[in-house]
Amino acid sequence: MARKNLPADVTIRGAAGSQLIFRNFEGAAGKFNNAGDRNFCLIIDEELANQLDNLKFNIKRTKARDDYDSVPYIKIRVGYTYKDGTDNQNPPKIFKIDSTGMKLLSKDQVKFLDGARIKNVDLEFSANDYIDRETGEVRYSAYLKSLYATVEESALEREYNERFAGMDSQDPNTPPFDI
Question: What pTM did the predictor assign?
Fold first, then answer.
């Protein structure tokens, strides 16, 4: 394959949380997803869709409905492992931002984003080439490099996040209060 001529990395800033559709950071099996395939789709504007399509990225469109028009989107893969099961030596860096600051999510923690109320997303993805089975031409898949997701918190979540900032809620030996 022609790895020399990969398109430059793409950076998208200020995407609304509602632009992230079909989220599957966990890699759960489903009607449109094989088990272990972590990915999400990002709704993009027509101008960016045309640019990425010209670069040979696979741009799809939602189905038009009575209450909204068809919009373009791109599927972005979240590659922690390769198809052969080995670990990616340069996994994506995914950060959750809330009232306590910014936290790098681990491979096991990113599934949180599947159901999170996300306000804003900044992300960067790179291209990985493949041969289209139907046309035989080189095409590109988008692979996440980094993602910064600002999550929406309720007043109660914000209060407790601020009160217990710095405590590891995953450690059952660390109580959230003084003994």
Answer: 0.84
